[in-house]
Amino acid sequence: MNANYTGKCPIWQTPANCEYADNWMLWVNSPRAGGEFYIHQDIEKDIEGRYNDCVKARLTSWLIEQRLLGVKCPKITGTEIKKVLERRALSELKRADRLLKHFQKRTRYPGDSFEYHTRKGSDPDPFWQIMAWSESTKREEAQFFVDYLQKKDWTEKATKGPHPTLRLTIAGYVHLAELEKTNIDSSQAFVVMWFHGSTDPVWEDGIEPAIKNTGYKPKRIDKKEHINKIDDEIIAEICRSRFIVADFTHGRGGVRGSVYYEAGFAHGLNIPVIFTCRKNALERIHFDTRQYNYITWRNPDELRQRLEDRIGAVIGYGPVRYESETS
């Protein structure tokens, strides 16, 4: 890399540390964008005038999600911009939860407090991070979520005066513990299906590439090396997963009871389940599950495309980049 210099965030035009890197990439450390990222210089040049603040807020949210998933310095390329344009804005509840998680990261120990208002002449502005984590475009919007966390008794003012501080309450930590159960920061997708020679192409040409193409790591229990009880391993992998793909296709032997059990277990943990089934087998599945929005498919290619679309729309794109995507 070349020498570091103080410049402007390519997304928000706020002060940021920048550094030119290899392959026409610019390294940026921007408080308004929540931290570090790389951006291709061609995109850097036109992002300011081409996209409105709502798109920039969603792009900032995507960067934060990548960091939460373990990508220290995400890369913004044309592919990522396209994905962001397809993203839905976060719900108000998710924005509040995200901000609470940011406040937790600001504390060193339970009971620790932190400044959240702008101190005159401060650099960087602490409210930039609050705006980033709450997917806000205006300071008043971000303040609304700060006030909401206090009204929910998840945070409280620790000091008053011109520079008030906040700290998390016990109720706030309890809520964060509940959020952790949903595995929103996992990059794994667990797959439950009929393991049979006839379904090998369904996995190899349909489910596996769809999950990889949307940025997640597919996991199938029969492909994991272990010496433990299989049921315990399945439960553990479901608990580690961001979402589940459950394919209910079956042969003449009848429905696959384990698929129903594992999908139901994930539902009980509030882990999203994507239901799929071969079209000519759908009428034979158990009637209790027919109210769900199944992806029906006739061949693996159709399944791959429809599953990619569903993951992108419902779950969002993950952080994992495979060689086939970047080559």
If you had to describe this structure to a student in words, what would you say it looks like?
With 327 residues, the protein is an alpha/beta fold. It has twelve helices and 13 strands. A five-stranded mixed sheet has the order 1-2-3-4-5. A hairpin with a 4-residue loop joins strand 2 (15-20) and strand 3. Helix 4 (92-106) packs across helix 6, helix 5 (126-133) crosses helix 6 (139-151) and helix 8 (200-213) runs parallel beside helix 11 (300-315). It starts with a strand and ends with a helix. The mean pLDDT is 84.
Please describe the topology of this protein.
Blueprint: E1 5-8, E2 15-20, E3 25-30, E4 35-40, H1 41-50, H2 53-68, E5 75-76, H3 78-86, H4 92-106, E6 114-115, H5 126-133, H6 139-151, E7 155-159, E8 165-168, H7 170-180, E9 188-192, H8 200-213, E10 217-219, H9 230-240, E11 243-247, H10 257-268, E12 273-278, E13 295-297, H11 300-315, H12 323-326
Parallel strand pairs: 4-5, 9-10, 9-11, 11-12, 12-13
Antiparallel strand pairs: 1-2, 2-3, 3-4, 6-8, 7-8
